[in-house]
Amino acid sequence: MPYEWTSPPHTTPQRMRLWPHNSLPARGMAAFVLTTFTLISIPVLPLLGSPILWGMLPFTLAAVWGIFWALQRNHKARQIEEELVLGETIAHLKRTNPKGDVQEWDCDRYWTQVTKYDDEGPVPHYVTLRGKGREVEIGSFLSEEERIALYDDLQRALRR
Q1: CA within 20 to 30 Å of 56's CA: 44, 66, 71, 136, which one?
Q2: Do both 121 and 148 map to the same domain?
Q3: Long-range pairs for 152-158: beta carbons < 8 A, 24 or more residues apart
Q4: How far apart are CA 144 and CA 5, in angstroms?
Q5: What digits encode the pLDDT tens for the residues 86-114?
Q6: Residues 101 and 69 in one domain
Q7: Does the global pTM surpass 0.70?
């Protein structure tokens, strides 16, 4: 599951780290691009030595480059990390976005409310933290089942 409590459950402060699921590691991406290049090159092989090859080659290379670029961009967009720290009196959420900018939110733990919007949010089972006059999302990049589990975990953690 792409979130975990990094401290034991009955200690203070409690720390939770959240990150998006990354199903294609760098090695897998390289293998995919190489396989794509190999499969796209098969129709071009009979054209070796012919002037038609030079007409087809730029399009073949452009297709491989486009796949590589799309995978790289997707990987960079998934570099999000959130950390929730529940101290004895403070709840603090820190989100690091893909471009490196950091967003932070804190509130008195006693007044912190966890809310789950089943259908009203931008994603199903949208989870937010509310307190100190603000409402912030948490774990919106998680899958639907993971957001449901996250909501239950946060409810239990804030009750302690």
Answers
A1: 71
A2: yes
A3: 153/5, 153/16, 154/84, 154/114, 154/127, 154/129, 155/114, 157/5, 157/9, 157/14, 157/16, 157/86, 158/86, 158/91, 158/109, 158/112, 158/114
A4: 19
A5: 999 999 999 999 999 999 999 999 999 99
A6: no
A7: yes
Q: Is 79 strand, coil or helix?
A: coil
pLDDT at 22 exceeding the cut of 90: no
For 42, 54, 80, 98, the CA distances from 28, given in Å and listed in that order, are 21, 30, 20, 21
In 3D, which of 103, 94, 104, 99 has the Cα closest to residue 79?
99
CB contact set of 126 (below 8 Å; sequence gap of 6+) = 116, 117, 120, 137, 140, 147
CATH number at residue 132: 2.30.29
